[in-house]
Amino acid sequence: MLSAPGFRAWLAANASKITYAALSAAAFVMLFLHADSQPFWADELCQITFSGTTGSLGQTVFYDPHTPPLYDAALYLWYKVAPYGERWLLLLSEGAFAIAVFVTGLVGERIRNRRTGILAATLLALNGSAILTCGWELRPQAFMLLFCVLALYEWVERAKKPGFSALRMLRYAAWMVLSGYAHYFGVLFCGMLFLMDFYLVCRKRIALRYLLSYGLAGVYLPWLRVALRHDTAGLWQPTPTPQGLLELLQFLGGENWLILGLFVLAIVFIFKRKPFVERAPVFVVCVMILLVYVYGRYIAWRSTFWVARYFSALFPCMMIACALTLDTVLQGILRRKRKVAAAVCVCLMLYTGWNTVRVIQNEKTAPYRAAAEWLYAQGDIMFEPDTIVISSDGGWPLDGWREYYITKQGRREPILLVDAWIVEADVLLYFGRVYHSTYGYWGLPGKLRQVLDEHYVLLEENEELYIKVYERR
């Protein structure tokens, strides 16, 4: 048992880690308590289809090669035991985000000092975009965020202490493989780490054998073969533009102009003589975005990949770069006025916290949960044989909506809910009452629209929930 002096010494030695753990725990509690405020949107309902409606783990793994299978498989197992409700189902994402906050602090501290680590962890914990995209999203971004920052931590450890270790090499390879199996952009992120290692090898700062980790990460290649055989194009992905580039940087900064300003300063500071490891976060962010921008704008084979949430692996690098910049500014102030430096930090964090609340409150929520409750509130008429609900948002989102919000995982009796793009126009005429969920991108087939216009009268329209109610003339 530690003596009092020994305990105080331990606290002093681990004060920063305790701070990171406190920030991580606070982020997790906040995410868990308020997760129900964000009902699932179409992509998350697709995820429920992939992981919650399949008959086996193998079927889940190969259901949709749009994304690698790690999150699909983990959610498949969790879905079977998790209590009903968004906050419970999101525990995988919430936990991964909270751990990423802790590791981001470790990386910042390892790069420069404790103050940088605390600033970086705090900025990530308060990043509204990261919370919405990783902590509160039933998609693989949170896993990519976690495993990429773990890979970054191992890279920084190797760069700061170049001693070769087989265990370290295996650990680094493991984080890279998990990053790739979480999301394809995890592969791209690890490619940035490879470029920096290759540079260090060329400058003879590390030995060539350090690149063995990337060879071990080749166990990812079997899945890459599966992905390349999947030829679906990402038609929803826009072409990159200068305006889109600015919007992406704002997104990574949590829609916070102060954070964006700090990152611009970080880009300026990269040209000053600094240790290479301090330039790494800015290098990763800028080069990774530049590569996707050029690819999406001038090549775009199958897809442009220009979707903000795909870049979620860059949140820690962005926050560490901003923390390094802020620490540089604070060092100049601290030489003269400590109270001013403290006031600057407090004001920045208060503003960032306020901005995060604003970003979350302004986030538009999908109507699937509320629409399902409204439909069931209509009473017995929903179960009449001549009542049908058609949805413009068909396919995977419809299957997920039926599974999680309509039947609540089999907890209540289903209603007749069909894809508007599958039901035949002449079949629709058999129903006396039609509820049309208009939410989605696809509208209605022309023949179905004609049948509704000619043979039905519009009784009610709920614009907030995107529902129209028709009755046969």
Structural description of this entry:
63% of the residues lie in helices and 5% in strands. The protein has 473 residues and is mainly α. The protein has 2 domains: 14-362, no CATH class; 368-472. Strands 2-1-3-5-4 form a 5-stranded mixed sheet. Strand 4 (456-462) and strand 5 (467-472) form a beta hairpin. The longest helix has 25 residues, at 338-362. The model has no long low-confidence stretch (mean pLDDT 90).
User: Any idea how many domains?
Assistant: 2
Beta-strand proportion: 5-15%
**What oligomeric state is this?**
single chain
The largest sheet has its strands arranged as: 2-1-3-5-4
Which helices and strands occur, and which strands form pairs?
Layout: H1 4-13, H2 15-34, H3 42-52, H4 57-61, H5 70-79, H6 86-89, H7 91-111, H8 114-125, H9 128-135, H10 141-160, H11 166-182, H12 184-202, H13 212-216, H14 221-229, H15 242-252, H16 257-269, H17 276-298, H18 315-334, H19 338-362, H20 368-377, E1 387-391, H21 396-406, E2 417-419, H22 425-428, E3 433-437, H23 446-455, E4 456-462, E5 467-472
Parallel strand pairs: 1-2, 1-3
Antiparallel strand pairs: 3-5, 4-5
Helix pairs in contact: 2-7, 2-8, 3-5, 3-21, 7-8, 7-9, 7-10, 7-18, 8-18, 9-19, 10-11, 10-12, 11-12, 12-17, 16-18, 17-18, 18-19
Key descriptive features of the protein:
2 domains, about 475 residues, about 65% helix
Quick take:
With 473 residues, the protein is mainly α.
